[in-house]
Amino acid sequence: MFQGTVEDAGQMLFDTACQAGFGRGTYLHAVGDGAVWIDRQVAKQFGAQGHYLIDLFHVCEYLGAAASGCAGDVSKKNWLEKQKALLKDGQAQNVIDGLKPFLEPEAEEDSNAPVRACHRYLSNRIGQLDYPSALAKGLPVGSGEIESAHRYIIQERLKLPGAWWSPDNARNMLALRVLRGNNQWENYWRNNTEMQ
Predict the structure, then answer these.
(1) How far is C-alpha 5 from the chain's CA centre?
(2) Which of 30, 132, 156, 165 could, after both became Cys, cross-link 90 (CB 3.0–4.6 A)?
(3) CA–CA gap between residue 27 and residue 43 (Å, rounded)
(4) Residues paired with residue 52 on neighbouring β-strands, in sequence order
């Protein structure tokens, strides 16, 4: 569980990667929602040994919102599938360029301009859309598996029928569940008993 500043989160990410075996000869593949701070921390902590990729499903949420304004005669689903195929084929710039003719006027509020929002989002993150490289290496292009881990790591214990938690106890239980999920249970207890 990340607590503290962005810098603390970056250091925690680095420490966790090292505990999992990250070293001089390894590569870190990070997948996320496009948050600028995560990309910056991956670059700062891992340098050339790491790369940040935007979750393809997250990109498709932006494209899906833009589909109504761009699909034309094609169904929205078919248009979205074509954009996804282009991204997987390394043609992110073509996807971005294909949005340009459908951009809403600048006078339109951002909340009513999904094509513009998608165009801006993708244009600002072009270096984070290298799906072909990830796929060629057998790496994931989505973060769904990790994001769904809350079901069996957190909710399985904290959402027992009739259970209720004070905030402090919930945080402590969450920390213990994460330790166990990361195979750090034995180390934690060994180090904890040695200190007593």
Answers:
(1) 18
(2) 132
(3) 12
(4) 30
